[in-house]
Write a structure and sequence with these properties.
Elements (H helix, E strand, L loop, with lengths): L6 H23 L5 E8 L4 E5 L2 E8 L5 H13 L7 E4 L5
Parallel strand pairs: 1-4
Antiparallel strand pairs: 1-2, 2-3
Length: 95
């Protein structure tokens, strides 16, 4: 079963993500270095890389060696900031 968002839920999620993006940009402008957490899953042909703090954006990478670089590039593009202005790490395993 697929998880589809209703139009209302999608608008709410986009609005919340916009607030997260603006807050991250303001923090970076103040000299803070936020940490973004990466989770991955295999889709059968590539690795789907998601950012916990930005749940509506993701990128596919061909192998494990590209996960953190792919995430960093995605976050930098999404926030329109330099890729060195934040940290990226794997999210802790959920139990």
């Amino acid at each position: 079963m697929r998880n589809y968002l209703t139009a209302t839920a999608y608008r709410q999620a986009m609005s919340e993500q916009g607030r997260v993006i603006e807050a991250a940009r303001r923090g970076i402008d103040r000299g803070e270095r936020p940490v973004f957490h990466v989770v991955t899953s295999w889709d059968g042909s590539a690795i789907d890389v998601r950012i916990l703090e930005l749940p509506l954006v993701h990128v596919f990478v061909p192998d494990e060696s590209r996960v953190l670089d792919g995430a960093r590039e995605l976050i930098a593009r999404t926030l329109s900031v330099d890729a060195a202005s934040f940290a990226v790490q794997s999210a802790p395993e959920r139990t």
